[in-house]
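@channel anyone free to eyeball this complex?
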Amino acid sequence: MGIIAMKFGGSSVADAAGFRRVRRIVERQGGRVYVVLSAPGKRHPNDFKMTDLLCRAHGGDGGALGEIHLRFSEIARALGLGDANGWLAELDASIARSAGWAASRGEWVCARMFARYCGMPFVDAAKLIHFDAAGRLLREPTQRAIREMAARLPCAVIPGFYGSLPDGEIQTFPRGGSDITGALLGAALSAKRYENWTDVDGLLSADPAVCPRAIHHEAVSYRQMRRLSLAGARVLHPDCLAPAQEAGVPTILKNTFAPGNRGTYISDRVQAQVACVCHRDGFCAVPLEQLGADARAVASALAAQTFVSAQGEALAALPGFEAGRPACIVSAFGLNASELDAARADVDPIAVRLDDDCARFLVPSNRVRNAVSALHERIIEKVP
Ligand code: ASP
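replying in thread with the prediction:
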């Protein structure tokens, strides 16, 4: 029976009901599963993510530390785990140690609790995921440590998001990096699949908050998923794709809240291109010839974000580098070249560029929702 690497995001383990749901999913799998967990996420839109609370607590915010205690204790009590005092006392004693250490403790406590709840072994990610002194991932020692762990243990619960530096101190991945931990596990173990469980059915054709008629895609290639992630599709961390793809391990996106739904299958075997509208914010548009040397260096590094305005002016979309009008890049995958002029009229962008099968529109930030829904109507909903 093949190995399965599973990763559950913060919204899946946000409360005790989430822990129960995740346990049912893991137990249904049976066999050799290695489960990676994020820290508890938001329970409702105005809630705080545990990782944000921990960063605040590290900065000396006593209220945040109190909230952390309350949330973990509530989960422990509801699951009949006794109290979480031992883990929380350890957390209190070490919260000032380093920013990385503090940020990683949400995953650490969460995985410890889940392992006890399920009666599965806990393995600290600090023993598996290795970084060099500059904070770069060391693939080879990481792979070796994961394989040694799997040779000893037929299943395990592992905190996501962090690993260790050569001096033993904790190093985190970028935010959302538990996806990377899960992919590294799947790749090192040549898993049958890497299941990434979140709170949506997988890849949608647009953000459903903006386009309520967004459709679900059942399959996408690794190549296109990378382009979509870089264009702003938020369903997966872009850095988790390469390890699984290189190892030939398919990634499956699944919904913890609707496990019977089909999800999205990501593999090099998928040929078809999917139609999607994504956006990334935090840019501003600057005429290329007005850029200073520093900004020009940034612009050339961002060659993929050089646009041409309707007046033929070359613009760079720089990530908040210069004071300028805040702008977004809206990427429309699947727009036919013949529809470009009509789409330009719908969106009225500052500038446009075409990359293969993707049209990119630079739009003022305050018009991004309109642009996304107009493009979605044109490409996916086929509104005449
Ligand atoms: N807990 C971390 C975050 O909030 C990492 C993760 O969830 O993957 O970004």
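from a first look: The mean pLDDT is 92.
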